[in-house]
């Protein structure tokens, strides 16, 4: 009787551990480059001439992998909230799959600094990345590209 209880308890503990491993989702790290030198971009000067609160920046740029191959697009907008310091931004990273079909998207939003590294929240995702949350760091390069590193987790 005691042996059966110990076996049953051990079996249950193993099954619980196995279920936890099967249901756990490993974080995904994606490193991309947004190409600010290509694509469309428009500045909309709302207030007095020059940088001022409320000015808009709208963009649709190629998204590349680390080998600088186009893998999608990086499209969105920023509203200047503190000119020369930061803007409030939202954009979508669209990833192409085989044959150029859309494989998935990741939507990010938050404050982007005018200089240096910014970290914004992942607020939505579809397709390959559906259900993912996390954050993305964005850092400008001297060549006009931005290193965008996504840290994604599926609940």
Automatic annotation (TrEMBL):
Domain of life the protein comes from: Bacteria
Keyword vocabulary terms for this entry: Signal
Keyword Signal: yes
InterPro entries associated with the record: Allene_oxi_cyc_Dirigent (IPR044859), Allene_oxi_cyc_sf (IPR034871)
Residues making up the signal peptide according to the UniProt record: 1-19
Protein name: Dirigent-like protein
Lineage: Bacteria, Pseudomonadati, Pseudomonadota, Gammaproteobacteria, Pseudomonadales
């Amino acid at each position: 009787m005691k042996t059966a209880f110990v076996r049953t308890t051990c079996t249950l503990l193993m099954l619980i551990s196995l279920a936890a491993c099967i249901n756990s989702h490993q974080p995904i790290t994606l490193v991309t480059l947004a190409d600010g030198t290509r694509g469309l971009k428009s500045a909309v000067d709302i207030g007095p001439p020059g940088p001022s609160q409320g000015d808009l920046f709208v963009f649709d740029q190629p998204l590349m992998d680390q080998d600088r191959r186009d893998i999608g697009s990086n499209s969105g907008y920023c509203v200047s909230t503190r000119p020369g310091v930061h803007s409030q931004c939202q954009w979508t990273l669209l990833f192409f799959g085989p044959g150029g079909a859309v494989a998935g998207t990741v939507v990010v939003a938050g404050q982007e600094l005018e200089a240096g590294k910014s970290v914004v929240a992942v607020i939505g995702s579809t397709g390959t990345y559906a259900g993912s949350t996390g954050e993305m760091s964005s850092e400008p390069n001297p060549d006009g590209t931005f290193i965008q590193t996504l840290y994604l987790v599926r609940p």
